[in-house]
Structure formats: C-alpha cells, structure tokens
Amino acid sequence: MSTDEKIPVRKTMFDSYATSDIIKSHRVLNTPSEFARENLFYVQEVGYLKSLKSHTSRREHLNSYLFFTVLSGSGQFTYCGRQHTLHANDCIFIDCNRPYSHCSSEADPWELMWVHFNGRQASCYYGFYESILPHAVFHTELQTDFITTLQTVIQLQKINDLRSEFLISKLLTDLLTLCITRNDSASSQESTEKLEQVRDYLDVHFAEKISLDSLAEEFYISKFYLAREFKKYYGVTIGDYLRTRRVTHAKELLRFTDKPIDEIAGLCGIPDSNYFSKMFRKSEGYSASEYRKKW
User: Fold this and answer.
1) What gap in Å lies between CA 213 and CA 224, rounded to an integer?
2) What's the pTM?
C-alpha cells in the first residue's frame, strides 16, 4: 500500500443490555468513522428503555441532539426550564447542549425509544424545527413510523460498516423529516384548509400588490394568526414565499422568452427593476442576465 493512501478509520460499536431495580434497557453506543463524522448524520447512542421505578436523569453541555418517543406510561420532561408531562405517543427533539432532565412517573413508569445523534447539518435541521415548534414536545398519530425507523437504525448499527453508516444517515434524515412534517393534532382541518387556500391565492396572484392586511381581509382571518400559522405550516414567511414565487416565475421568463429584464420584473410584480435585480441576485447568486446566459 502506498504511504499516500489513507487508511479509513474504523468505527466502533458497543451493544449493551442492562437490568437493575430502576430500569431495563438495551442500548447501542457508537463511534462513527471519520467519513461519517465529517459528512453524514451519525448515531452516538440508540436504544430502548423501560423504567421500573421513578428516577431523574439530568444533562447539559452535551454535543448531541436527542429524539425520543414515549411508547407507554408517563413522565416529566424539562427543557430550558419549561416542564412538560409526557404520555404515550408524545415525542421530543432537543439540542442537548441546553439543560434538560426527564423523570418517569412512579405510578405509571414509562417505556421509551431514543437516539442521540449528530452531524454537520444537525444544527440547521434543529434550528428549522425550533422555529415551528419552540417547546420541543409534540404528539403524533404516526408513532409506528418513528418506532420502525429507530428499530431499523438499531439493526443497521450492529452491522458496523460504511454502507450501514450511509443507510443510517438516510434514516436519521427520515426521522428529522417526520419531526418537521408530522401530523400536528393541534392544527384543525379547517385551519389547514384555510392556509392552503392562502397559498393557492399567492400562487395565482403573486404578480399583484399583496399585503398581510389585504390577505387577512380576503380570507376573514387575523393577520397575526395568519402570519404565525403560515410560517409554522410552510416553514417560510408569507413575504419570503412571495419572493420565491416571483423569482421562480422570473427564471421561467428568462429561460423561455426573449422579454427584456425590465419587463420581466414588472410581470413578476416588481415594477422597480433595481429592487428586482437585487432580489434576484440575492436568491440565485448572480444577475438575471447572467442566469439567462448560463441556462
């Protein structure tokens, strides 16, 4: 072997079963390969726990992200000073650098599945998640999807090779996607339909002058409620959604017509061509004329 060739760092895994008078658990600890640590989502610890007696666990300043779901029973969970009572089908997703603790109830000890994980994009996913659910806790009617994902992660973790690391990274991405796109029982069907109507309206009327006040009047809804729920449901503000829709239409006209850029700006609802140019460059990284030439 050439001395210039890099020898891949082998990850290590530890599979542990533990039973005491407090808990019964099965956990898999992992040290990822160098490649996984630099490029993928990776597991630090994943497992199952059944509390036999009430006990409290506290942590902070841990370079990790934690997801767990309550399979049965109940308990208390505290994150950044805010306390929550959790029951079956409740889930949490947190940044473990912040202080947190959890304690199973004495009368109805809980059963959990969890995963500690990390990765280069973990903070970005968590930041987006926190913007739509700042209290960290949610209830799901799709718990089977979360459980199946965690069970598959545990099985793949035992294979302990680079191929399994790619598959685990995909599963952790799926898990985060489930957290962000979950079925939120707190949102009524009527509210969801109203938000979809607003989005459809924006898709049709994006070239017109639209304000939050005009949308609230059009749909008989509080502008403050609309702004908050639209951001929570779609992950972007109404203003950002409009800008994205206008830039997308501009790209279509730049590629498939010979219309002048000033005219395209007006057709996208931005009569100020200087503002259009700044907005387009901010979105795409180069000017409208450069985009037309490149594509």
Assistant:
1) 10
2) 0.75
